[in-house]
């Protein structure tokens, strides 16, 4: 069972009693905690714990093979707290059930077997749906590239950058179209990432603005803030949900920073150039501008093409664009793994 609690939840009901049960169709089993087992077999958690201890002591079952820990969110008073909880599979549940109340064990086993069979039977249909969704997402991503390639704003240098993106990451797209995981997945990511403060962003952009004006490539309107859009954008990136960061990794923060500045237009002029500059600045501040080989993760031409790609994209394709950027920042191995720390 995954620690991200993605396994589907079904309800086991006996008389007036209901218990949430996690399914694991891949391993053809179900999982319950000691508290849930106590509810199913109408006994105390101390009794369940004692039976489990004896089962493993007598080597009736292998503890490692029948237990796993997962992260669950519990309501404790007015707070939602994430805890690590040990769960036990169907073999362990039935073994406990025979020691507590065999009738209830038989009922639960029959119910679990029926539910697992139903989900396995439906699996072929679900996998086909996922395959079709994957194909549509890949087609949408490539359509974005084709549309941008025909944009009048795309000069020769940006065109080369777009080709570079396609050639470097087409295989990544294909590898990440996992039939068993749905849509384009996020890569192995580096947790954390310090966002710049509003003053740090203003200072960085003021330096860029002065340089561009000196070259005759910008006017006083460049990077001039529109209302409190920039402050709100940075606050959105730094928000938390139930005490956990909404964007928990360097890759997630970088991708959303680039996307939001391009799409939300927090400045009167120069949103794309400002977005690209802040994207690079963020990576530099977090020691992620260079890869393990000392090469920039996205060169100037590639970044210009990527920024234009975001600008041309439909807002409905936001998640596709964000995942593309995250995969571009990840190592090749991380793009294949599709996991995060």
Structure description:
It comes from Halomonas alimentaria. Pfam families: Fic, Virulence_RhuM. This is Fido domain-containing protein. Residues 179-327 form the Fido domain. The protein has 341 residues and is an alpha+beta fold. It has three domains: 8-122, no CATH class; 128-181; 198-329, Fic/DOC protein, Fido domain (Four Helix Bundle (Hemerythrin (Met), subunit A), Up-down Bundle). The chain has 13 helices and seven strands. The protein has helices spanning 34-40, 45-57, 63-66, 90-100, 102-149, 156-175, 198-214, 229-237, 250-264, 271-285, 300-312, 318-329, 332-337, and strands at 9-14, 17-24, 29-33, 67-76, 79-88, 240-241, 244-245. A five-stranded antiparallel sheet has the order 1-2-3-5-4. The chain has a two-stranded antiparallel ribbon with strand order 6-7. Strand 4 and strand 5 form a beta hairpin. Helix 9 runs antiparallel to helix 10, helix 9 (250-264) packs across helix 12 and helix 10 (271-285) crosses helix 11. The longest helix is centred in the middle third of the chain and has 48 residues, at 102-149. Mean pLDDT is 77; it is low at 1-5, 167-184 and 333-341.
């Amino acid at each position: 069972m995954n620690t991200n609690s993605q396994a589907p939840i079904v309800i086991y009901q006996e008389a007036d009693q209901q218990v949430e049960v996690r399914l694991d169709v891949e391993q053809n089993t179900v999982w319950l905690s000691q508290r849930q087992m106590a509810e199913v077999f109408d006994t105390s958690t101390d009794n369940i714990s004692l039976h489990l201890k004896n089962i493993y002591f007598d080597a009736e079952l292998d503890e490692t093979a029948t237990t796993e820990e997962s992260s669950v969110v519990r309501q404790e008073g007015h707070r939602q707290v994430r805890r690590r909880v040990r769960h036990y599979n169907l073999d362990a549940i039935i073994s406990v059930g025979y020691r507590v109340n065999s009738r209830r064990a038989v009922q639960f086993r029959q119910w679990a077997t029926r539910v697992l069979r139903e989900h396995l039977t439906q699996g072929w249909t679900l996998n086909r749906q996922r395959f079709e969704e994957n194909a549509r997402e890949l087609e949408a991503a490539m359509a974005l590239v084709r549309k941008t390639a025909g944009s009048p704003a795309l000069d020769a240098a940006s065109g080369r950058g777009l080709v570079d993106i396609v050639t470097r990451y087409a295989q990544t797209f294909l590898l990440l179209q996992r039939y068993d995981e749905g849509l384009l997945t996020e890569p192995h990511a580096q947790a954390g990432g310090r966002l710049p403060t509003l003053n740090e962003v203003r200072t960085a952009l003021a330096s860029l603005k002065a340089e561009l004006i000196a070259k005759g490539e910008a006017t006083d309107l460049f990077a001039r803030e529109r209302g409190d859009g920039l402050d709100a954008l940075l606050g959105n990136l730094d928000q938390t949900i139930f005490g956990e960061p909404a964007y928990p990794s360097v890759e997630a923060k970088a991708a959303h920073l680039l996307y939001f500045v391009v799409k939300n237009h927090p400045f009167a002029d120069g949103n794309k150039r400002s977005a690209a500059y802040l994207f690079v600045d963020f990576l530099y501040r977090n020691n992620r501008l260079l890869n393990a080989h000392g090469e920039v993760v996205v060169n100037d031409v590639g970044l210009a093409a990527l920024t234009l790609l975001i600008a041309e994209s439909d807002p409905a394709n936001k998640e596709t664009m964000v995942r593309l950027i995250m995969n571009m920042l990840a190592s090749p191995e991380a793009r294949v793994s599709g996991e995060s720390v």
